[in-house]
Amino acid sequence: MDWETYVYASKFFGRQRPPLAYERFCQPHASVDYIKAESFTYLDFFKGYLLPNVPCVFSSAFTTGWESRKYWVTQDGKPNFDHLLWNFGDAVVPVANCNVQEYNSNPKEQIPLREYINYWKEYIQGNYSSPKGCLYLKDWHLCRSFPDQHIYTTPVYFSSDWLNEYWDELAVDDYRFVYMGPKGSWTPFHADVFRSYSWSVNVCGRKRWLLYPPGQEESLRDHHGNLPYDVTSSALLDIKVHPEYPKCCPPIEIIQEAGEMIFVPSGWHHQVYNLDDTISINHNWMNGCNVATMWHFLQAELDAVQQEISEWRDTMEDWHQHCQVIMKSCTGIDYKEFYNFLKVIAKKRISLLEKVPETKPLGNLCSDSPGLGPHHAAFDLSRIADVLASLITNPDFQKLETSELSPPPEDLFNNLKEKINASL
């Protein structure tokens, strides 16, 4: 990031902004931008898509050098089962059954990849049918399990990735996934974890995406307030059950070809189908451009929990702490861990500004992308400071026992302001 972009981004978040306008995506047959030029820079992406929070698709030219695109695919564009079995056959993988609805998702089981590929071959031979149902390998942490495999390189456009940077620091989890599934496998309607961004590349095969701009999902809720499992279901036409459905704009439909890369912005609900036998690589990620969105999401989740157990507020000891525990079980994070998340990223950016060598680069595992420079570090710190200021003054955060947090949140905030001012 250069100085000009830093100033531009600071003004973007510094002024009192009206709600982002997505009107152009609510028109019939709306489309997204298709990026062909390899001269397209990180700053082009940052200004044109990250800040305004709008989707785009990159051509297959951006992923031609990936080893997975060379070796995981046969000459006729199909999954290379032999290569996958030879390299990963004994790995245990999560597999979802697309034919079974469990709340608004599908139940999963853990099986060896070898067993799943045998099923997949039989499913193809059975004309894409099986008594076992349509099974979809989803959310496989292949990169974490096989760190020496050079499967792909995280594109520079997505390399400012606080989510995976944080979990790499803890060395317990990540949000980098491989998906594999036969033609007809699909993912029900959802928005991504923490309202993060996501990017997805088809190593082989094609996907059909149905995307809705933020806010449109409210028109899809039923009279109980629940979101649909399948936005293509005719049940949504019953206005007694879905009274707001006539107000909803049509989805943006994208056919993603082999090798292409799609960027899904924060809060865009979507539903995805595999049109062929498909393998894809996917990341959930976030950074300074959408950290406030994550914070708003967490506040809304806690508010929902508090309403759900409000009747026990006066009789339950440590009611506020119980709400945090429930929220963490539902979302994967509570307010204290969110503070720790902000702190870890802040310390790394301060180290960069002070030119102190870090134990780990800003680039991710399975990525050789470089750090993004001092101006980007200063931008990140300014975004952390804004969200931290809101967290510190939040009444629910103030009710928690925060004495064990180190440094104290107020001290971290003051340190951030000093570092930001010094860097400018």
Inertia-based shape: globular
CATH structural fold name of the largest domain: Jelly Rolls
Individual helix count: 13
What count of domains describes the coordinates?
2
Question: Brief description of this entry?
Answer:
The protein is an alpha+beta fold and 424 residues long. It has helices at residues 3-14, 42-50, 67-71, 81-88, 113-125, 142-145, 162-170, 291-308, 319-331, 335-353, 374-392, 395-398, 409-423; strands spanning 33-35, 56-58, 92-97, 108-112, 135-140, 176-181, 186-190, 197-204, 207-212, 252-256, 261-264, 269-274, 278-285.
Detailed description of the structure:
Interacts with ETF1. Interacts with the ETF1-GSPT1 complex. The chain is about 35% helix and about 15% strand. It has about 425 residues and is of the alpha+beta class. It folds into 2 domains: about 25-215 and about 250-285, Jelly Rolls (Sandwich), CATH 2.60.120; about 290-424, no CATH class. Strands 1-2-11-8-13-6-5-3-4 form a 9-stranded mixed sheet. β1 (about 35), α2 (about 40-50) and β2 form a beta-alpha-beta unit. The protein starts with a helix and ends with a helix. Mean pLDDT is about 90; it is low at about 355-370.
